[in-house]
Amino acid sequence: MAKNINPLLKEVLMDIKPSEKELRDIGKILADNIKKIKGNIQNRKINAEIFVGGSAAKGTLIKKDLYDIDIFIRFDKKYKNEVLSDLAEKAIDGIRNTRIHGSRDYFRLGISQNLFLEVVPVKRIRNSREAENVTDLSYSHVNYIKKKIKSEKLLDEIRLAKAFCYANNSYGAESYVQGFSGYALELLIYHYGSFLKFVNEIAKIKFDSSNKIVIDIEKHHKNKYSILMDLNEAKLKSPIILVDPTYKQRNVLAALSEETFGNFQNVCRNFLKKPSVSFFKQKSVNTEKLKKSADSKGYEFVLLKITTNKQEGDVAGSKLLKFYRHLAEETGKFFEIKEKGFEYDKAKSAKIFFAGKKKPWVISNGPEMNDKINVSRFKAAHKSVFIKNNRLYSKYEIKFTLKEFIKSFKNKNKKRLEEMSITELNLA
User: Fold this and answer.
1) What DSSP state is assigned to residue 18?
2) pLDDT tens-digit readout, 290-335
């Protein structure tokens, strides 16, 4: 397969690598803004330094419609954690920005339609144990990757992996993606040696929660079992445990969910069966095609738009995803869902869809027979009831459509929508 696939990967690389002009333009914008920030830092006598992070610093940037470049302001450790964001705001005074709330607030600088900068406050630490926020490790991450990965060949392999994950909705550790961060992909490609080996290994993994895949590049731990004992239990839920080479107590893939991993595995397997450039191109949900497919199989199809009042980005995306999963669970009580999907617009809205058919009937749990008052109420509320194991149940036929269910759900759950920060739930 290698002979057939190599020309394809070369073609992909030509398409995903930013042009020299794009890199020069980005470099100039970075230099201009860093100069302004440095000036503010000096004028306000703030003890801090600046470094560029992420793909731009490591040489693994891939072509996108919208570039996001990380600029880190590294503050002296004398400053308390709670003042770092306010200090960063002073450092970018005079530059149009949006404050993004998080575990430590950071700032988005809207430079142009296809580029924004993210200014992230971090603390200057001597070792990883002093980190008060995961972003404090960013300086170590940049240095580690630049030290370990110097060949253009390996940088290209990383670019392929990033483009592949990005196109298949698996790139990013954000709550609404729960996928592979850029740093995780850089480490994985360094570990496996190439994009193809990475895809092959992912495709072969048989996920078993009792037998985790563990990768410890720097051999910080004696063995796999000491890793599972030493790391925080909350960080061990991901399908793969990837020990951070710069901090042995951290799982770089802690954000990777079983759902995202399972979907990505299927993509890897499909790619290996029939390699194509299309696997590296981002696709939007083709609702017309999905509707036609559902109609041909006799399924009902609904397309919805949901909107939140939360801040765009990880906060809004995670709220929308949480509501989508809740609605899918509620819908699944009455309908056999054959296909479903979620597509976040990176702002405050998402498109979601369901395709399915009514269940033949639904069984509703009632009270135990010794609960006389609620037994009486349950019988009054349900036409067909039966007793099993000393508990009352009701069995009834579904007579409403999927669309009718959504409308009814919206009307009956206005308070719940408000509690979940959903401001709009409409048929698209």
Assistant:
1) P
2) 999 999 999 999 999 999 999 888 899 999 999 999 999 999 999 9
